[in-house]
Structures are given as structure tokens and as C-alpha cells.
Amino acid sequence: MLTSKSRSVVARPQTVFASNWARENKDLYDDFTSTAFYLTPTDIDNEFSYDAYLNALEEGTLKPRTLGQWVLAKNRLLGSIAYENFIRKHKKLVELHLWIQIQKLHSYLNGQNNHS
Q1: How many other C-beta atoms can be found within 10 angstroms of the C-beta atom of residue 51?
Q2: Could you tell me the maximum CA-CA distance found in the chain, to the nearest angstrom?
Q3: How many C-beta atoms lie closer than 10 Å to residue 75's C-beta?
Q4: Cβ atoms of residues 14 and 42 within 8 Å
Q5: Is 60 left (phi over 0), alpha (psi -120 to 50) or beta?
Q6: pLDDT tens-digit profile of 6-65?
């Protein structure tokens, strides 16, 4: 599992296709600094652009994470994986617990309706 060593300050494209599109529409990025990224065509399967990554670092739209930020991001990722594994392993137990909670809620709500 990878955890990025940088964090986005302002969203910018990181693929070859999207970087070229952003370069061709520079005025859009100049006028709408914080939101232009969301108009960029989606291209998640295209090649990563190391040049775009370095430019973002130079422009300050991407910043290196501190060690503490990286550890926090890594722990969030690992926690999500552990939680997902727990849910998969104990699916029947989780479903039973949810069913019991729903039954308690139904009983409570029915009791509220009967006393009104």
C-alpha cells in the first residue's frame, strides 16, 4: 500500500493528458485558481506526469507532507483496511448487531407512538 509523500494545496492535474489540457486552458486556471481542476477532463487511466508533479511542487499547489502528516495518512489507510477486514470476517455478527439495533429502534418508536 502506498501513501503519498505530498498533499494537494490546490488541486492540479497529475497526468500527461490532463496536464496538456490545463496548459492549453491556462487562462481558466489563472481566473479560477481553486476550481478549474474540476473542469479538467477525467483521465484516471492515463500516464502519470512527473513534470506536472514537479511543476505543482514549484508552484506551491502541492506540498511535501511532514513526517507527522505522512504517518497520519498511513494510519488512516491502515485503519480503513483493518476495519474492512473486520467487517468481512465478522459480517454475520455485524448484521446481527445491526438487526438488533433496528429492532430496538422500532420498539422505541412504537412505544413513542402508543404513548402519544
Answers
A1: 10
A2: 68
A3: 11
A4: no
A5: left
A6: 777 777 887 888 888 888 998 988 898 888 888 887 766 778 888 888 888 888 888 888
